[in-house]
Amino acid sequence: MSGPPEAVLVGERHDGLQHDAGSVRTGWSQAERTRLAALLQAAAADICPFTQIPPVAGARWVLPQLVGEVRSTSRTRAGRLRHPSWHRLRHDLTPDNLT
What we know:
By secondary structure, the chain is of the alpha+beta class. It has one domain: CATH 2.40.50.140. The chain has one helix and six strands. Strand 1 and strand 2 (17-24) form a beta hairpin. The chain is globular.
């Protein structure tokens, strides 16, 4: 990853599988984006962790090791977050805590 992300694809685990929930583009400061970029770089992976590959050109995949808190106004019919905004990284949780 060459710099801080412009957007982060987020997922949710259902029935033991990771599903695409949309992308977050707002809500973080420049410092948070830079810190998140370093964490995402450390978790880089060669394969997509989602059950279906999202149609996003240039996406870079990471292992699902981080938990972020994202706020949204609602969900689309497809279950994706509508108007998501980054709130914070949850260092007190792991993906396994959420199942």
